[in-house]
Amino acid sequence: MHVRRLELxxxxxxxxxxxxxxxxxxxxxxxxxxxxxNLVEALGYIATLASHRVATDAPLVRSGAGSxxxxxxxxxxxxxxxxxxxxxxxxxxxxxxxxxxxxxAREVVGALRMVLFAPEDIELVRGDPAARRRYLDDLLVxxxxxxxxxxADYDRVLKQRNALLRTAQLARRSGGGADLSTxxxxxxxxxxxxxxxxxxxxxxxxxxAPHVAAGYDAVAGEAAGxxxxxxxxxxxxxxxxxxxxxxxxxxxLAQARTAEVERGVTTVGPHRDDLALTLGELPAKGYAxxxxxxxxxxxxxxxxxxxxxxxxxEPVLVLDDVFAELDTGRRDRLARSLEDATQTLxxxxxxxxxxxxxxxxxxxxxxGEVKRV
Length: 373
Fold this sequence. Notes:
- The chain has helices spanning about 35-50, 125, 130-145, 145-175, 185-220, 240-265, 285, 290-310, 330-335; strands spanning about 1-10, 15-20, 25-30, 70-75, 80-85, 95, 100, 115, 225-230, 275-280, 280-285, 315-320, 345-350, 360-365, 370.
- It is of the alpha/beta class.
């Protein structure tokens, strides 16, 4: 799989731009703040229907414009597929596949499989659990697009259940009675959707672990120490069987009900879980240096890339400003590890940051234009 063309209209800083790519490595070079990341952000939106930089669509639309359009031509197994998204802040996005409208925008998920490393990914290592949960869920969707619906259903039920718990909490504080007659219904739905999500995450974490270790070695060198990950659940150990997980989650919800009504929030479930990252014998968060955290974050993205490849998918690998925080040895090792990639897109502010081993096309990004040089 590779991206053949990216077209943007009124997206971020671009009034209109078209970029033609080829298989292999492509390096986008330009000063900071000139729009390099906007290009890869658009590709990421095609792949996941979300930005890795902002939580809403409004900042993605160029100032003064009412909407933005992203068009991406994807080549896969010799076939060409055009994916088009129109982003209208405050309204549902419109999507087309192969020039035909689709009912829901999420139907385009899976048309482009992509793994993106961005500087913000250092928060995967040293940030809050929410970043690591999103990493897992985005990869789940990339591997099996049906998990987009699973995640959406779980989030919807969780919001409804939390709203009921907050209402009950306020009623108790005011001395009134709380109507919890529908809480059992929400518990059953949360247990069902949560078990499916949790089973997917547990399987994913097990598959990722060896690739994370290999990815860290590829960047930092084998003498740097072993990197590992482990899924940390808020549930008692229940294996990875979906039915067993549903039973365990339902029991945990029942046990926590009194405390949850007092607090007005759901305290057990996949939304409370974490991914434990260790370097050697110590947790990476709080103990790893800045360079080690950066290398670990790169390793997490390389692991996702290798896992997708092991599934028979050839994703596009995007590295946004990855070399800026790596020393020469780590840059060279990373570049050599990418030699067999079908397509790698790299952004950098300075050409000298790009290792000599990373051969391929060069593009200059400047003043709202992208030119091949």
